[in-house]
From TrEMBL:
This is VWFA domain-containing protein. GO terms for molecular function: calcium-dependent phospholipid binding. Residues 78-282 form the VWFA domain. Pfam families: Copine. InterPro entries: C2_domain_sf (IPR035892), Copine (IPR045052), Copine_C (IPR010734), VWF_A (IPR002035), vWFA_dom_sf (IPR036465). GO terms for cellular component: plasma membrane. It comes from the Eukaryota.
Length: 324
């Protein structure tokens, strides 16, 4: 066991460590007894009067089995994958080869590469393989600026058939919209969260398990940061994870603030997130690697986020259906 003094910036200070066995902990805590383990810092051991850096008191030992992500999948949990795409003006004119939305017939742009890499993994867990694809920050053909629209322009049925369908809808959409702004992402987070909230109600009513993953692709600084924080805090209590992929060369330092790895994210009103549901990755870090490596990195935290959600709700995985 390694013991650290926690720092919110991630630079935790090592206090000391001790080694024991499960058998030892069990025997020492039998009958309500307390086990004590001195924490030793090797760098301080050479000092004459050094005894320890503190003592860990183990007052109770419980052993329990934690279900795995795959147990929920085998038990019939439905993964629902949604894509949210940034159509703001900072991406550049799509007709210009320097634009992040430029459609090169020989080379997919960064948006397409990220959708393909992450989507190809997620679709293996989605039984119907119908994916809602949403856009934000564009001026639509009717002249309205929208922060939440179906990229197939069918709001009553925003679903695309497979990742190939998402990419086709994206390429068609680019030809019909005018890139605009601002970069407001909260509406799309709330959009998916509403479906996750409905799924949460059905957990109790029907015993159905459904989990939502939103892949949000953006090229720049979020302009509705306070509302986005509130949306994430709201979604943290729902069966939902948010993956943000930063496209292009912008300063994405604010995005790391949304990723709760360095401390609990709080809403604008100070309300803390129930759990960490955000993973941010700048696409530029993976330009020279394979799509599989990008997918592995951005999806690394999702399995534990799924398990943590159901643990908080005290919902076990369903038994694996018997094959006949």
């Amino acid at each position: 066991f390694d013991c650290y003094d926690y720092d919110s910036d991630g630079s935790h200070d090592f206090i000391g460590a001790f080694t024991t066995t499960l058998e030892d902990m069990e025997s020492k805590t039998q009958g309500g007894k307390e086990a004590q383990y001195p924490c030793i810092n090797p760098k301080k051991q050479s000092k004459k009067k050094y005894q320890n850096s503190g003592v860990i008191h183990l007052t109770e030992l419980k052993i329990f089995q934690r279900p795995s992500f795959l147990e929920f999948v085998y038990g019939g949990m439905q993964i629902n994958f949604t894509v949210g795409i940034d159509f703001t003006g900072s991406n550049g004119n799509p007709a210009n080869p320097t634009s992040l939305h430029y459609i090169n017939p020989y080379q997919p742009n960064e948006y397409m590469q990220a959708i393909q890499a992450v989507g190809n993994v997620c679709q293996d867990y989605d039984t119907d393989k119908l994916f809602p694809a949403l856009g934000f920050g564009a001026k639509l053909p009717d002249g309205q600026v929208s922060m939440e629209f179906a990229i197939n322009f069918n709001p009553s049925n925003p679903y695309c058939a497979g990742i190939a369908g998402v990419l086709e809808a994206y390429k068609a959409c680019i030809q019909r919209v005018t890139l605009y702004g601002p970069t407001n992402v909260a509406p799309i987070i709330y959009h998916v969260a509403r479906f996750a909230e409905q799924a949460q109600k059905e957990e109790a009513e029907k015993g159905a398990h459904a989990y939502f993953i939103l892949l949000l692709l953006t090229d720049g600084i979020i302009t509705d940061m306070d509302r986005t924080r509130d949306a994430i805090v709201y979604a943290s209590g729902l069966p939902m994870s948010l993956i943000i992929v930063g496209v292009g060369e912008a300063d994405f330092s604010d995005m790391n603030f949304l990723d709760g790895d360095n401390g609990t994210l709080k809403g604008a009103n100070g309300r803390p997130a129930l759990r960490d549901i955000v993973q941010f990755v700048p696409f530029r870090d993976f330009k020279k690697t394979t799509g599989a490596e990008l997918a592995r990195h951005v999806l690394a935290e999702v399995p534990q986020q799924v398990v943590q959600y159901y643990e908080i709700r005290k919902i076990p995985p369903k038994p694996r259906p018997t094959q006949t």
